[in-house]
Amino acid sequence: MFCLAGLFIICSLNTRAQDTTLTRLRASNLAREHYEKGLTYHYQRQFEKAIVELEKTISLDPYDYLAYYFNGLSYEQLKEFEKALQNYILSLSIKPDFNEALFNRALVYYKTGKYSKAASDLEHLLRLPAGETQAIFFRGLKYGQNDANTGFNSIISMNDKNADIYNYLGLSYYQLNLYEQSSAYFTRAIEINPMDDNILTNAGLNYMANGKIDSARILFERSLSINPYNSVASLNLSLCKSDSSIQQINQLDELIEKNEDFPMAYAQRAYQYYLAGNYESAIDDYSSAIQLDPGNAEYFLERGMIYKKIEQIENAISDFKSALSLDINNYQIWYNMGNAFFQINNYDLSIEYYSEAIQINPQQPDIYYNRSVAYYLKKDIENACRDMNSAHNLGMQKAKTFLDKYCR
């Protein structure tokens, strides 16, 4: 650009402004290029590559709420839940009414055992107006499904979306043992989508937990009328028809004979053997379940608990470590690991594991109680009394005896 001497300052400023605009335009175009590459990798299930491209997008355009959202989805698929959560939070900080990010943040809370937070997000989502896309880009897991069966890039109706929200609200309250609230949400989900066999099965499981066996049986039968291959419904329907552990074991024998590759049936039979006091058979069945589904942390946890009960502590600790490698956010694994080390008088390690459990779920009085006893046995009365007071405040009545005796 040609500038007269008297206008040099003005011309310089204009040139600089043009240069800045061009730089921003190039950055915007480059950000869009990385974003589109990231989405392509995401839908191809190449999540590590997707994250690389999406984070390049974010570095060029830190206000791209969709880049954070899809970055969160990619981390979620890699089971890096804390990073997924961070990205959903950042997406929502830019666009607070972004329904999809709020829904997936709720799913991460659910998957990491933060059921109250999941329920809070889902209830908030129901109060928001429909999102501008009127779709959820990625549907989370339903009870009894796995990632391999989850549809990607599926555009679903608002009715389906609301059914999923009510379904996860039901599951969250089910996990919190609030069965009546759970039932109300499952009922609403079924009203919206009466042909979803998974929602019917979830509602049936909730009725079983609440002792309403006849209602559970009806829902499992409805589920199977829609999808005869729903193995969770089939398994629990057989249990509804049995009153004793022996009867349930017989029913499960028949189910396993028909389908030898059904890990949940082995796990359920293992639990019935455990109730019957047949610990050897229970361990064998949990081992079969693990062989069929080695990525299921619950099977390692439950087998470890039996090993602990029969005082095979080394085996128990090994199983708990395997469970933690699969699900680091499950407070029950940390808690049971603490119990195992407590059982062999290793109070320092038991305290460490109890502390991790409390970090994940600070509302469980049993954990505070056990950590208090561990502190007491280490002669750390101050911390023992603090923890016992926490246990008492959370409703554990027997903590009062300890408090009256040692903490006054």
Please provide a brief summary of the model:
The protein is built from 21 helices and no strands. It has 408 residues and is an all-alpha fold.
Written description of the protein model:
- The protein is mainly alpha-helical and 408 residues long.
- Among the domains are: 26-96, Serine Threonine Protein Phosphatase 5, Tetratricopeptide repeat (Alpha Horseshoe), CATH 1.25.40.10; 110-143 and 151-237, Serine Threonine Protein Phosphatase 5, Tetratricopeptide repeat, CATH 1.25.40.
- 74% of the residues lie in helices and 0% in strands.
- It has 21 helices and no strands.
- The chain is globular and about 70 Å long.
- The termini are far apart.
- The model is unreliable at 131-159 (pLDDT under 50).
Set down the secondary structure blueprint.
Blueprint: H1 8-43, H2 47-60, H3 65-77, H4 81-94, H5 99-111, H6 115-127, H7 158-175, H8 179-192, H9 197-209, H10 213-226, H11 231-240, H12 245-258, H13 263-275, H14 279-292, H15 297-309, H16 313-326, H17 331-343, H18 347-360, H19 365-377, H20 381-393, H21 399-406
Helix pairs in contact: 1-2, 1-3, 2-3, 3-4, 4-5, 5-6, 6-7, 7-8, 7-9, 8-9, 9-10, 9-11, 10-11, 12-13, 13-14, 14-15, 15-16, 16-17, 17-18, 18-19, 19-20, 20-21
